[in-house]
Design brief:
Length: 500
């Protein structure tokens, strides 16, 4: 009988899960949709219990398909980071999870930076304190819900950590996820006690920091009943999605960059952790790596796949419609539009962290004429997203020599990939397994934990269906010519939002 690593990735739009055999074969791939609640004031939340119910629906489908619970050797986890999830003494979420992209804590962020000094905090934390950081969210939530705060036993900061709690009652956090909080001392790998105490939070509210490959517990009796996993099945701490995607993409060398395309996106590469050199631009983040000698330098983009979802409305998609049909129409219309150089789309429909920081909505089409077609608007959307990513790459000093790997569910979009190749002026390598590569990265860590993989070797990648996207010479030249215009327009429009 085959034995498996069961790997779960809790994304923004869905939970994805795979089973991986000892020789790296991937099977029983599953996906369960998730619901996000958003409001115009910047609220972005999900119900943590829905994450667990999605996991249970996946495991139930595995058992119905003939997978034996006894064949699961270990459970691996990854998922969205920088969420705020207050937990009661009874190990239940006290509210919906406040997601990484929730930008309501503007006043609290400004207060913290004024109190401690923005530069001082960045030196201590290796990252900038923003409304998306966890500490401002903690202050905002405590002010809004003082009674619930008094019932708070601990906080969790990652979606996968909530699933771990539900499976084995442990409240944990990996160093990569901890790096996103604004509460983690990067150099010594511990919580920043001083800043917590000065903001009247006890360090006892923080989860335990565990390495990604640590076995943090095993499936308990209650979780076994709900999920079908055998009681006693071991669970790894896992790692936040940025690091998991990096490992799943096969990125291992210093300064080797890649692009992740999902609801959000990022450009990232490994850099030496010692000595720690902060990037010149404070929109670039440094996350603690799985290996102590390497950190992950990342330019996180909040406006990515969610903008493609919004663009479906350009071709008539309404809530409740079959999005697949409209997505195919959007791609077809955008591909047929060709060069739309006079038209620029600034894609910051939501608050953004990188390449330009804004707390509010400031998207725009510039250059529209009476003859502008819907297809041209659609094409401009993909071009604007690609230009935003290229700007991120510039801030990271990413070299355009050679090919760039692209992973994530957004890699299914042929038009988006072509726009990125044209904007960067280099080929893209896209795996046929792009959407599940964060889960693959989590599985690779668990395989090392149980001795199925050598920590010194690359995880065996399944490159079936891998494609190479080559830049179009003419379109690439047009994108390069329009890049300065894109940056200038973005800065002007964001400046207008800041002054309003």
């Amino acid at each position: 009988m085959s034995t498996f690593v069961a790997a779960f990735d809790v994304g923004t739009t869905s939970l994805k899960a795979i089973l991986v055999t000892r020789d790296g074969k991937i099977c029983h791939e599953r996906k369960a949709a998730l619901t996000t609640r958003m409001t115009e004031d910047g609220l972005v939340e999900q119900d943590p219990q829905e994450w667990f119910e999605a996991m249970c629906s996946v495991t139930c489908s595995w058992w119905k398909a003939g997978v034996k619970p006894s064949s699961i050797s270990i459970i691996a986890m990854t998922g969205q980071m920088q969420d705020l999830i207050p937990i009661s003494l009874e190990k239940r979420a006290l509210c919906r999870a406040i997601l990484y992209s929730d930008m309501r804590a503007v006043a609290e962020s400004e207060h913290i930076n004024e109190l401690f000094g923005k530069s001082f905090l960045r030196e201590q934390l290796a990252n900038t304190m923003t409304p998306a950081s966890i500490l401002p969210k903690m202050l905002h939530w405590r002010r809004q819900f003082p009674q619930s705060f008094r019932r708070t036993h601990r906080y969790l900061f990652g979606a996968k950590d909530y699933l771990i709690m539900m499976l084995c009652d442990r409240l944990v956090c990996d160093p990569t996820t901890a790096s996103t909080t604004g509460l983690f001392l990067h150099g010594v790998q511990r919580w920043y006690t001083d800043i917590l105490e000065k903001c009247d939070f006890s360090v006892s509210l923080m989860p335990d920091i565990e390495t990604a490959g640590s076995v943090v517990g095993s499936v308990n009796r209650s979780a076994s009943k709900w999920t079908g996993f055998l009681q006693g099945t071991p669970i790894t701490c896992g790692v936040g999605d940025a690091m998991a995607a990096t490992l799943g993409a096969g990125i291992a060398e210093m300064n080797e960059a890649y692009i992740y395309l999902g609801t959000t996106a990022w450009v990232a590469s490994f850099v030496p952790s010692v000595p720690l050199k902060l990037p010149a631009n404070d929109a670039i983040y440094t996350l603690a790596g799985q290996d102590k000698d390497k950190d992950l330098r990342i330019a996180p983009v909040l406006n990515a796949g969610n903008i493609v979802s919004w663009a479906l409305t350009l071709v008539g998609c309404k809530p409740g419609d079959d999005a697949t049909r409209f997505y195919e129409l959007l791609e077809k219309e955008a591909a047929a539009a060709g060069d739309v150089a006079p038209l620029t789309f600034v894609p910051y429909l939501n608050g953004e962290r990188c390449p330009i920081q804004t707390d509010g909505q400031c998207g725009a089409f510039v250059g529209i004429s009476a003859g502008t077609t819907m297809g041209q608007l659609a094409r401009a959307v993909f071009n604007g997203l690609a230009q935003s990513l290229r700007w991120c790459a510039e801030l990271l000093d990413v070299s355009e020599n050679g090919a760039l790997r692209v992973v994530g569910g957004g890699a299914r979009s042929a038009v988006w990939l072509q726009a990125i190749a044209d904007a960067f002026g280099c080929p893209l390598i896209v795996s046929g397994r792009s959407e599940i590569q964060p889960a693959l990265g989590a599985a690779s860590i668990a395989m090392q934990t149980i001795g199925w993989a050598d920590t010194r070797s690359h995880f065996p990648l399944d490159d079936d269906g891998r494609v190479l996207i080559v830049p179009d010479v003419d379109l690439s030249m047009a994108m390069r010519d329009g890049h300065k215009r894109f940056k200038r327009l973005s800065e002007v429009i964001v400046g207008l939002e800041r002054r309003s």
